[in-house]
Write a structure and sequence with these properties.
By secondary structure, this protein is α/β, with parallel strands linked by helices. It binds zinc ion. Zinc ion binds next to loops.
């Protein structure tokens, strides 16, 4: 089965935080049968208040340890081979594009295929959901999005505010994705997508990777593998069985759902979906087929 995850902060954990035991390891990716793990170049917890360039550099310097362990970097889902384990890069935080439009091509050359326009700080591109702002993307932000989409980088709405989200549909050239977001109707949190947003993703062929963070899954934070399956199921019930998948956020979350604590536990999720009545074909889409199809729609 082609299994793909659209968000993890393992490079920050390895290269910057020097976490002793990251949730994602090559051994666990193999045990979980993961074909394609997306690894984020995150701008860090302070945004422009921190050393963004230094953090990105330290994250890139964590890559050789992964490639030495046999993980191959690929330039998109179609290059990832079932039965092998590869990774693809993303960006989390549009701060990296503030120095000029040429920076978009710089990150594309590194192999970046997904870029979240904001993390939790406002930047020159737009406003995060966390700010509570009603401002949409800036005019520079719209230029950045168009350049990203021209070069094959998916615009990622996770962390972005609603006005920015709707600007992407009104002014962008390609459907956006949410690399690691959950369902707001099931858990009221500013990071989650409401039904109107999910319906737009479905209607326009976007993509939603469901986040495994317990605080986004249930308001009381009591989540297990079943809770993740319920968020996936909600999106399927809305008509999104072909646009939903996994956005684990492993190594960016300080706790994980019970029985879904690292990639080696992913078979528990497929079993939960089977118990809920999902067919093998539907599970294959959720596991990664839908992400592969999304990137084909971007081409
Ligand atoms: Zn995030």
């Amino acid at each position: 089965m082609f299994i793909a995850d659209t968000h993890a902060d393992t490079l920050f954990a390895m290269g910057v935080a020097h976490t002793l035991h990251p949730a994602i390891t090559p051994e666990r990716l193999r045990r979980g049968g993961v074909t394609l793990q997306t690894l984020a170049l995150w701008t860090g917890p302070q945004g422009n208040g921190g050393d963004v360039a230094g953090i990105i550099q330290a994250e890139l310097e964590a890559l050789p340890a992964l490639t030495a362990a046999g993980l191959k970097q690929v330039d998109g889902p179609d290059e990832a081979i079932e039965g092998e384990c590869a990774f693809m890069l993303s960006v989390e935080g549009g701060e990296v594009f503030e120095a000029g439009l040429h920076t978009v091509a710089d990150f594309r050359r590194l192999g970046v295929r997904i870029a979240a326009l904001t993390w939790n700080h406002p930047n020159a591109i737009g406003q995060p959901a966390k700010s509570g702002s009603d401002d949409g993307l800036t005019s520079y932000g719209i230029q950045v999005v168009k350049e990203m989409q021209r070069l094959g980088i998916a615009a990622d709405v996770s962390h972005l505010n609603k006005a920015g989200f709707w600007d992407l549909f009104a002014k962008g050239d390609r459907p956006p994705m949410a690399s690691h977001s959950c369902v707001r109707a099931l858990c009221e949190h500013f990071r989650n997508l409401d039904d109107d947003q999910l319906r737009a993703m479905i209607q326009y062929g976007g993509y939603v990777g469901v986040n495994f963070y317990p605080a986004f899954l249930r308001e009381d934070g009591q989540a297990d593998v079943r809770t993740v399956a319920e968020h996936i199921d909600y999106i399927c019930q809305l008509g999104g069985s072909e646009i939903v998948g996994l956005g684990s956020d492993f190594d960016g979350i300080e706790c994980a759902p019970r029985n879904l604590e690292h990639p080696g536990d992913l078979p528990n999720l497929w079993n939960e979906l089977r118990r809920m009545g999902y067919s093998e074909a539907a599970i294959e889409g959720i596991a990664g087929g839908n992400l592969r199809d999304y990137f084909r729609r971007l081409a």
